[in-house]
C-alpha cells in the first residue's frame, strides 16, 4: 500500500521531517516561522523542502504526456 503523499505526488510534513532528520513539529515550526529554530536546523528543513519539491516536480514531468 502506498502512502497518500505518494499517491498525490505531494510531500507531507512527515516526508520533509524524515528527509531533514527532524520531527514533524520542527518542520512545522520552521515553516510557520513563529518559534525560534536554530539556523542549522532551519537550513536542513529548507534544503529537504527544496529536494522534495524538485523530486516531485521531476516525477510529474516524467509522467506528463507533454513533458
Automatic annotation (TrEMBL):
GO molecular function, one term: DNA binding
Transmembrane segments: none
CDD domains in the cross-refs: HTH_LacI
HTH lacI-type domain ranges (all copies): 11-52
Alphabetical keyword list: DNA-binding
Gene3D superfamilies: lambda repressor-like DNA-binding domains (1.10.260.40)
GO annotation terms (biological process): regulation of DNA-templated transcription
Pfam families: LacI
Keyword flag Lipid metabolism: no
Top-rank taxon, per record: Bacteria
Full protein name: DNA-binding LacI/PurR family transcriptional regulator
Amino acid at each position: 500500500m502506498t502512502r497518500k503523499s505518494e499517491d498525490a505526488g505531494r510531500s507531507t510534513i512527515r516526508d520533509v521531517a524524515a528527509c531533514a532528520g527532524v520531527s514533524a513539529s520542527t518542520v512545522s515550526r520552521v515553516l510557520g516561522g513563529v518559534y525560534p529554530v536554530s539556523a542549522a536546523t532551519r537550513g536542513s528543513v529548507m534544503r529537504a523542502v527544496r529536494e522534495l519539491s524538485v523530486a516531485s516536480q521531476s516525477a510529474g514531468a516524467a509522467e506528463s504526456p507533454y513533458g
